[in-house]
Design goal:
The chain folds into three domains: 3-88, Arc Repressor Mutant, subunit A (Orthogonal Bundle); 92-161 and 268-307, D-Maltodextrin-Binding Protein, domain 2; 163-263, D-Maltodextrin-Binding Protein, domain 2, CATH 3.40.190.10. The chain contains nine helices and 14 strands. It has helices at residues 3-16, 19-25, 30-44, 60-88, 100-117, 169-175, 226-234, 244-253, 284-299, and strands at 49-51, 56-58, 92-98, 121-127, 141-145, 153-159, 163-167, 190-192, 203-206, 212-215, 221-223, 240-243, 257-258, 272-277. The longest helix is centred in the N-terminal third of the chain and has 29 residues, at 60-88. The radius of gyration is 32 Å and the shape is rod-shaped.
Length: 320
Amino acid sequence: MDKLRSLEIFLATYDGGSFAAAARACSTDPSTVSKAIGRLEAQLSLTLFQRSTRQLQITEAGKLYADTVRKMVQELSSRENELRHLNDSPSGTLRISSAVCYGHLYLRPLLRAFCQQYPAIKLELQINDLHVDIIENNIDVALRTGYVKDSRLVARRLSPMDFLVCASPEYLDEYGTPSWGKDFQQHQWIGFRVKETQQLQPIFLPNDKGEYVPYDLERSHITDDGEAMAYMCTDGLGFAQLPHFLAKTGLNSGALVSLYPYFRPPQADSGVFAIYPKRDFLPAKVRVFIEFLTASLEAMEESSNYTWAENWAPIINFSR
């Protein structure tokens, strides 16, 4: 029997005046009550009750102890209720970690509306591309492209990550439009270097059958910043294979065009994920944030298995 249960039985015995009354109050039997009080007295090296065949009398030490225990139990109950309310109501500080490009382009524009809807939630936002330990760093939810396979975490896919081969209209006017992957040997290409691995992001282009296959192309320019890659592409420095969230602004404004239909990597861990610690009871602040983000993405024509890129009209189309 744990200490808290013993203390509850002790208070019930004091209030009821007998082992039998305490047993009824605690849904147990008098023998269990007697043993619990005996163990508590042994632990304290104190006599809490004077026993006789006819009555049970609390000692002076027992009264002092009962006052302390009652305050402690009441404070514990009050704190539990506060914590339960905190977990069940959207309030407190929400610590978010987001990948840089996704954070700037997709997340930040949504934050004002989220805070207006949930004014009791305060935000602590970290923007970086490092896959940090979110449990060790006390992060409530992380937004990442690709997710860390960790049994302590839940990874909920917000959307696939669709890639589009983009260029500026000015570049195409000056250098022409390639038809298939092999034609890119004569064109400039902007490469992306992954900061953590220092490896270049692979390039996938359609062959003459319209099937996406990896291509080994020389990169004319290289950057480790996604937004810089998109701007370099917009500025006419060459082609780039951009994730849909990086290509969206340029395509919508006409500063970029997409050559081919979208390419979606087939791997199960490809996509944009909301990652959070696995818990029996998900805090309300995390739950409403993910619900808000999901609804906002749906309004932007994105879901766990779909992005707007599926319906974007490319310059060159082919049967899929």
